[in-house]
């Protein structure tokens, strides 16, 4: 516990003790009458609970790049996320963690954003699909799928064609992502067999919807979905465990040189989220950076 919070707790204990002494023989009803609302208000002097994603997460990779939470060291970019950050291994765990801690901050895919947390404005812009598309909200990244250049799985090929069609891109739009332009109606070949798709937990929710829609036009095919992370999605596609890998970031040079062919299927925003009880509604990019690099330790260091 940091000194600031410790001093605040000692002060609160002292005030409580003084109140009890002053009340003398007051009964419980007297305390209830004078106490008012017993729920404490959100206090900006409290420590920030910083929540981040695991290494290998495409969302983390895009987040630290977009907010400058990395620096060049010996010719390599180094992630400068503070060691104080709590690490979660999926989008759903991230949202649950922030929802349960009133002083927490985190980040999730815009398309996965639920009503259990609050998305803050970044540099004055609200995190919406419309603002991502217009360029007003600049915290965005591509959703990629990747295959080996010599992919020979007919089900995987047909499913990819569906994702890139009018029907597939309608699913993208319906789930609050930015769809591709100039797409054509789906012309499938209805192959039978199985394909395995795996990777990013941020891409996984919309991929599940795409699989459901594809089964409606090709009941002969089985698509297995495995949710891991972007890096695992790419390495498992390289070694043949996945037919199609998912990444919520650009592919790395090492992945491209290993023979992967990326295809953008949508654009997604990254929403910076806080607990719903927080009074913080807006942050600048620099404030987010100062939090995640550990320069700002309490909320009152970044907000008034």
UniProtKB/TrEMBL annotation:
Cell location: Cell membrane
Per UniProt, which keywords does this protein have?
A: Lipoprotein, Palmitate, Phosphate transport, Signal, Transport
**Which stretch is the leader sequence?**
1-28
Q: Name one GO biological process term.
A: phosphate ion transport
**Mind telling me which PROSITE patterns this protein's record contains?**
PROKAR_LIPOPROTEIN
Q: So which domain of life are we looking at?
A: Bacteria
How this chain sits in the membrane, per its record, is: Lipid-anchor
Q: Which family does it belong to?
A: Belongs to the PstS family.
UniProt cross-references to PANTHER family, sorted A to Z: PERIPLASMIC PHOSPHATE BINDING COMPONENT OF PHOSPHATE ABC TRANSPORTER, PHOSPHATE-BINDING PROTEIN PSTS
What this chain does, per the entry, is described as: Part of the ABC transporter complex PstSACB involved in phosphate import.
Q: How does it assemble?
A: The complex is composed of two ATP-binding proteins (PstB), two transmembrane proteins (PstC and PstA) and a solute-binding protein (PstS).
Q: Identify this protein by name.
A: Phosphate ABC transporter substrate-binding protein (PhoT family)
